[in-house]
Design goal:
The complex is a heterodimer. By secondary structure, chain A is an alpha+beta fold. Helix content of chain A is 38%, strand content 14%. Chain A has helices at residues 21-31, 51-58, 61-64, 79-89, 94-97, 111-119, 140-150; strands at residues 35-39, 45-50, 105-106, 125-128, 134-138. The two termini of chain A are 19 Å apart. Chain B starts with 15 loop residues before the first helix and ends with a helix.
Chain lengths: 153, 445
Amino acid sequence: MSIKAIPICPPTLCLQPEAKLMDALKLMLEKRVNHVPLCDGSGGFAGVVSTNAVLQALIPASARVKGGLSDLRFAGDADRLLTGRLHELERLTVGEFATRDILRLDEDCPLLEAALQLANCTAPLPVVGADGKLRGMLSRRALLAYLAQQAGI
Amino acid sequence: MHGATSATQVLFGLSPLLVSLAIFVATYAIIVTEKINRAIVALLGAGLMIFSGVLHQSEAFAGIDLNTIGLLTGMMVIVAITQKSGVFQYVAVVAAKAVKADPWGLMVMLSVVTALFSALLDNVTTVLLIAPVTLLITDALKLKPYPYLFALIFASNIGGSATLIGDPPNIMIGSATGLGFNDFFFNLAPLVLAVFFLTLIPFYLIWGRKLHAAPEDRAQVMAFDANKAITDPRLLKQSLAVIALVILGFMLAHVIGQEPATIAMFGAALLLLLRLWGQKGEDQSHQVQRGFAEVEWVTIFFFVGLFVVVAGVEKAGALKILAQQLLALTGGDFATTAFIILWVSAVASALVDNIPFVATLIPVIHSMASTFGAENINTLWWSLALGACLGGNGSLVGASANLVVAGFAERAGQPIRFLPFMLMAFPLMLASIAVSSGYLWLRYL
């Protein structure tokens, strides 16, 4: 049995790569989701934007990268630093910001493999058809709900 | 020292001189390409020196300078434990606030802090811990970090030149000659101080006078709370006490009749004891493992391999021939020899790793003692130390600390490019060597 059987969330929140990053952020805050997939003009999967990626981008590089500062308490609120960086992100589109190097699941992926991949990451994974088009985002919650239903729990 | 005639039983009856030279050249050539980890190359070269029959295993072991290895390892353990206290970030923030986050003042203060730490601890750790906080402060001030990172590299290599423990070449020279902490400090520190402040002049002309930060951004840095950078006050006190004791030990090494390796290793053990006092056995094992794991074993094994490779060419007589050639080139003139060692060391250290270069030159200079007299030979050691340490500023690959800063800057999206760096750094390095030449001339020649 493959993940095709799972009624995954349809890509209703899919954004075009030309959309503004701040619009995507507002959308994620408003809809209470942490990830939004991107689709190109023909529906092909083009990456994911996430609230975590936006938050990461607000943190100074001096702390964000490997070997950087592991404790920033001494820097206080540094609100100018944080809001200043948010303003810098305003000029970006989601296409420029999106993570493309992301694990994706084929729609024929077996359930066990999907369970393994989802257990090893912290975000929903895009499900992509053989035609390269996005079918939706599969979350751990959706997989568990399906398995619970199958087990009659 | 071994004589050329004692090299026997070399594979297929080949000349020990040729075999050892072939292994030596191949080892160094592969190290320079940086295609294979340098520790592996050095250890393979060492193994070949033994397998080929140039050295017996006992002779190879005798060639390893355990004083250098012990001093490096001991200091690495001390620094690995100390850095967890947050002291580096604390000092950097205090320094930035002392100049009210003025951009030029910040560059001077961060350079001073880096130079001081580099003189007393190892350069790589110093820049590894100062670079991130430098980047954070320049970020808050909306300043380009490049000039500050450039200054950090220079300060680290200049500061490290001042003491026995500041830079690996000095540790090697000190161990091979018996010159102590005070010898290095009193002979090199005055010059290093002059070079440091003279280097600030071009920094000011190139960058300092143009740097500007908005008052509200400076206020943001002034709001940094240095005390919160100290993550473990108890550890800080323990570390500072042990470092002070170790440095005192280095200063009194001749009086108490102990070698630097013993002092550093004892300090490392003492700091571990203080750190782990009262903890359960299992926790102790875990912490000790972590402390030892942070020793840069690649560097340590690199040294071990190199010492054996150099022992091979030394035993085969190659280094004696090199020394004779060098003396023939200088006509036996002491001043010319000192200047050649200084300038060649500087240029070589800017382009290749200075550790193998110094490891090779130490026995060469040793063998010159009979020509120039033991009482004069120290000048040649200062030439080598200054050339090898200050030369590291000449390019990005000149010193490990340079590569560490460049690597961090790259990850943080502020890459330091090889050629633009070298175009500015190499002339500045040559200027520092010119100043060193004047110093050697006035003081010793």
